[in-house]
User: Fold ATP-binding cassette domain-containing protein from Caenimonas koreensis DSM 17982.
Amino acid sequence: MVEIRKLWSVFTTPERTFTVHQDLDLTVQRGEVLSIVGGSGTGKTVLLRQILGLEKPSKGEIRVLGQPVEQLGARGAASRVGMLFQHGALFSAFSLLENIMFPLRELKELPAGLIREAAMVKLQMVGLKPDDADKMPADLSGGMIKRAALARALVMDPPLLLLDEPTAGLDPDSSDGFVTLLRSLHRDMQLTVIMVTHDLDTLFELSTRIAVLADRRVIVNDSPKEVIAFQHPFIHEFFLGERGQRAMELLREYPFAV
Assistant:
């Protein structure tokens, strides 16, 4: 589904030039849920934006469904890749339904009635009610914003879904409900998912594989059990430090098959 080869991400500020990714390789297979973890500044969200085509790497190649991402264009990328941004990124001046309809209005030549109907289907698919359609983002809870943003990400029926900290800012009950929704959508829509998260419960409940970013590259890309066993200071700190007991509980609890 996604192939990344020899990727470099170099950024320049007035003070210095720094390299975030160096010769980074990553392959994502169709149908899996690959989670990306790493410390602050390792370029997790940058990598998602590059897969989506919003940022261009300094060097290297990213292919989505066999095609270089820079050749997809806005329409091609939107039909292949859906993106759930960390804070939802809804348009504040648009109603919930208008937000969901936006990609179809901009990128598809369809009758207005069909666009509205498709958006309503996705609205209800993510657990929102028809009565919510005309609500404004300012009137929505954090969980509703996440669900509306997810509906917008899926309205073009992309086979690949990118999630940036999908449960960040949600209370435990809302987080659990959202993870359950993601698991169901992954199964029912046969999605391939790439997720960035630091939340252990979300990570272990959804992931079929985990890719760890450190030292400017992917140091390990394997099942959760194998990743935890990999010898590296960041992995020891992230999984086996203060949160080690919880990680071991989750390792026993989840079968890692979505």
